[in-house]
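Re-run with default settings, no changes from the original entry. Doing this only to confirm the output is reproducible before filing.
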Amino acid sequence: PFQPGTCNPEAVRAALVFGHLADSTLGSYSTAWRQWSQFCSLSGVPPLPNFGEERAFEDLVTNFVVSEIVSQRTNPGTVASKLYGIRFTLLTQGGGDVFLRCPRVKMLVRSLKRLKRKEALKLPVTPEMLLWLARNLRLGQRGTVPVPDDLKIRAIICLSFFFLLRISEALALVFGDLQPRRGASYVGDWGAVDSVTVLISGSKTDQYN
């Protein structure tokens, strides 16, 4: 925790502004802002919008999106993420919410989301895949010696499947996040449980956690 008078004020300010975001998100937002700044530099304009010139800024953002999709062949979902990164950086610099000031930018994001939905979807994990893992991982079947790493793999995959976890959520779990229960009560004996509560410390879908 920060102690008054012992920390750099800028470090405290940065922690308060950026602390609710995961490191990976901050990294992607930083990259997005750098690419946006480079695009604006090549276009001969500043990356920050001027008050009263929202229409020109909307045109600039549209050109950026077209450049990313057509010239750079960037995935529409990635382009939408870059726009959120630009928006976030403008907010932290006191530029206000560009989506509110520039409604066409918000429309661009909606269009990019529709384009993203038309992409080929990844194959889902099925119960048959879990059965294949149970047969092929070294879990102590037929009297063999179980391999600890294989047991861990089986456990994390089953947790992710049955609790619908993102990979980032699953990999952040520690043993204390699994709470054994019997009925409405928590119990200490795993052999007596009939359900398990999984505590998720943070998720990319919950930016305020």
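The first helix runs from residue 9 to 18. The mean pLDDT is 82.
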